[in-house]
Design brief:
four-stranded antiparallel β-sheet, homotetramer, Aspartate Aminotransferase, domain 1, Aspartate Aminotransferase, domain 2, alpha/beta
């Protein structure tokens, strides 16, 4: 069986695992006050060209989103997000559980448009009834989006400008950030992300760690009491150094970017091969998630040898499927899948 | 100046006020354990033909909605509601502040359709990702709706059936319930409401009391610890008898229904007069809220003598306005407005 | 029967009720944007000698406490309060329901001591584990306390200083503020309260209104978005002018202070008469609540003619009882009670 | 340097790590639906003699406590716990952040007494004011306690009986469960824990895993929607199989119990050696945490070679210190420390 269900199906990238093995019996203090965490912070600051950024490590994406958003918003504020946002659909109400509404914007292949954000905010403050409504207190986007698409640099700059003008922070969910940065048609770098977002996170779980997400806060006034906030959210790992060790490894020798490039290259090969055989591409994704519209009998046939997900409800004759690559996908996996179609 | 902004612009209906005056110096125990509250409960049970219903009194609509919804839902559940629902738009995130998501359904002049509710629930449980999503735990509708429209009896029966089949309670926000029951084309009685909803509230604030909403729980298993729940929500009035006195009066001699009929008659007169003069009716409302599309210069002219609200953003040549009647509107007010158009 | 159970057993003070009657049929805009609310705000600012204070009106004490405390605290902070505080014991967890811990201090007849507050804060920050603990973010006290006692001016000044030094706001719950200001041995004025607290509320429910509490925010940076916050907490009354009318009356012609003085005078008379007859005074309260330790057979006998509460569990031979006076207590009530003992 | 600060200073027990290495490149489905998680569940059910127990895996203790407690309590309920409870002191208000009060009981070397729990509940329901208070909805204890002490079997049985009689569930926080089960004077087995608690968790983080806690729910009606609840709390690990692999290893060949016995043997050796040298033992702990009262100059001297924590504020001449052993402590570490004293 070959696996394309998701990018969190295997353990850790071998280099990351090796560092965990090498340091396993060392004793360090807990909760991220160790030297490995410090090392990881320094590597990330350098990679982001943000020497003063605050960096924090949490275990998973949902807890990271909930902690950050809850930490930023005032009680009467909500978070703007595309209707398709992970926080709006697939986090079991974790944001609402902290007391805040997700205010939805139209999504365009997973992206929001700066002018629509601007329009929302303008309309919101148009008349006095806004005092009875949930105020937009920040903007959440993901890079890449749920559909594997990426914002262009000018789209990101426009969003950043709109947020800045409205005095609301821009938060970028980078669960798959490295796959987005590797998009060939893309022109956004990690430094751009750090420059344009007030806070973002660099996903590890889907990019080579056992678990872990690195939050980078570039706006120093934004999140002032992260340790108790993380503790309160159950997001402060006792053996914090495990996250430090893993991210220090990911951010040595460009491993993070290399993992991204590798998986995206495999994904684009897949896309081209499907396309060459006349299958519909549902979203033209430049990253590690590819969406195809396939005949149901081909799907059934593929399912005997490959594991992957239907995307949305099955259709009568054709259905949409998603194939996801990662650092753990091999050229061999890709070749076998191509042979099957 | 004549007033059509809303139905909460004056104090209490004179009969209600008189009872408050008559009982003002009496001493009673607090928190709704007095004889007036008991009297009001009995009158309401009788009017609802629900001798075993639980009846509770709170002060305002938002606190009532938040308390009821928070009391019913499990932590992982949200409340289904039309996109236009008051809880979704105009309660400053009070529902989310209790930790629950408002799950929105398409609205059709403020109403939801039973088949769309059914479809939502079916789709929700279609595949296993629902375990990562907010489960629909109850349905919220209002009667009449934000647009003044009312459900027909068969529409309500269909919604009640869908909820029953899905084992989720149906909650009806009756902030303006009496105006809805008075709709001439309508065929829904208070007893129908009590039979079809698991819980609903009878609005007092907009129907003749100084303040106060009466919650009726007909499903006995639904809300078991209302007193501490109301206290926790800041919704337990110390001088609870004030609500008892007012609702006991409203539910004596059909005052509640009479107020509804009176205000709706005035509103329909208005509608007919605007219609007769060729003005567009935006929603064909059978209740005390009427929505017209008027030329901007007429609006400016009316504003000199009458107070009323724009509905939505102003247009270039025409805008939508709302006129609301209540027990405190007089025939004279209506005649003066008609003379102005 | 004569009533000494509490100070919220009757309706409104006759002058307050009369103003409600006089204004009942007027139409005003809602939510506290009317001229009566403005009038009340101005009267209160003047009485507090705080021309720039923000003033807001809510319906009841629990909702006021929850809204204020939730609005002030950061997510990782809790509220310091005496163990006997109303918010700690008798508000059904309303503060915790907003996500915040009540951090308890020892109470001394309902009061906290400045040096104990100071010590708590010093100890809290002593070692780094504080990052895993709930930070003290504000101090809550009540004036008078749950036991009817009042802080002296120098006690209040010391508390204010400790809070100022620790950069946490001081919040005073004044549910019975007027009875506290009337304490004969007391030397604290409303202006002192306004000068020393960052925020406090002037209770109306127990001091002559049907319902309502007036929040005074003297620290301008403290609470910036009160309207949506109150709305979210279900604490924004639709017919806000009802609170405006009532407080405008209370703060005309010294009615508020006079109510306080009147009820306290009756209470002190009671205390003296019990004392003269050899009964134990449990707490030497200078305000409208009096606590006596009485023989159980006297209690049984009194209960036939007077209504009052046991304070704590009944004892074998003696029990503690509470007698409360208010504007609605008459000299006649007092005389009849004295005759009975 | 030798380390006695805590039991989460090293990585994973070598056998646990080896299984992670062996399975690292395998692809499995996420979120705990894999075969390793199933294996771990089966092993734990067997070890607990509870074939029908539900077993769930989360990442850390605070998130486990918050998820379980939030999932069990009704909105108006709080959790009873000893004043020294981890949830009351060192979880940054995580329980309150879910909306629930921690109701504190006196602690006796970290333990609560059954008769005091019973008394609390009886007193609570004594008069009607309980409707304005937070109802005790469950009991939280830890085994072993914060002070390393353990309940005897009869103490646990009494607590279980009191909870059963009051119809509130008993929850046992087992962050260090294996060290408690290994107490030589103790007579409590894992099967007893499973029989007497309604829900408990078996700590992994401090007992040999990189991270992870296994929740065992023996009362089937208690927690019905754990997957969305865990997701909402940010406690559902994407690569759930990592927890499955680790716990399957811990619960093979008695590794879990052996780790407990090993570390406790080392700790008792330490205790005896300190005792033999005349140093005060502050709490007579039979588990892996030992508390001594040492002269400050000895502490300073030890600190040059050993890492450990002060317990509470430093004293003038003597202070209290804690030494903690774990699977990663060696005989050599113990011998070196003994040589130093």
């Amino acid at each position: 069986m070959i696996y394309f269900d998701s990018d969190y199906m295997a353990g850790a990238h071998p280099e990351v695992l090796q560092r965990l093995i090498d340091t396993n019996l060392e004793h360090t203090v807990g909760y991220g006050c160790d030297q490995y965490t410090e090392q990881a912070i320094n590597h990330i600051r350098e990679a982001c060209d943000s020497p003063k950024a605050q960096v924090f490590f949490m275990v998973g994406g949902t807890q990271t989103n909930a902690t950050i958003i809850d930490g930023i918003l005032a009680r009467h504020e909500g978070v703007l997000a595309p209707e398709s946002a992970h926080i709006n659909v697939h986090e079991a109400g974790a944001i609402e559980a902290t007391g805040h509404k997700v205010l939805t914007l139209p999504q365009h292949e997973g992206k929001v448009w700066a002018d629509e954000v601007e329009h929302y905010i303008e309309e919101f403050y148009r008349d006095e009834t806004f005092l009875h409504m949930v105020a937009p207190g920040m903007l959440y986007i993901s890079f890449p989006t749920e559909y594997g698409t990426v914002y262009t640099l000018s789209e990101l700059e426009a969003l950043s400008q709109v947020c800045h003008d409205a005095q609301i922070p821009l938060y970028i969910d980078g669960a798959r950030l490295g796959y987005g940065l590797a998009a060939k048609e893309g022109n956004v770098t990690l430094k751009d992300i750090a420059r344009l977002a007030d806070v973002f996170y660099i996903g590890g779980t889907k990019m080579g760690t056992l678990m872990g997400e690195a939050v980078v806060v570039t706006n120093p006034a934004l999140l002032k009491n992260m340790t108790p906030l993380m503790k309160q959210h159950g997001a402060l790992l006792a053996k914090g150094r495990l996250l430090g060790v893993q991210f220090a490894t990911l951010f040595s020798n460009d491993l993070y970017l290399n993992i991204g490039r590798y998986a995206v290259e495999l994904a684009i090969t897949l896309k081209n091969e499907f396309f060459a055989r006349g299958y519909d591409i549902v979203v033209d994704s430049p990253t590690n998630q590819q969406f195809f519209r396939l005949p149901n009998d081909l799907i059934d046939q593929l399912k005997q040898h490959a594991s992957f997900e239907l995307w949305g409800p099955p259709g009568k004759t054709h259905s949409i499927v998603r194939f996801v690559t990662s650092w753990s996908t091999t050229y061999n996996d890709i070749n076998r899948l191509i042979e099957l179609i």
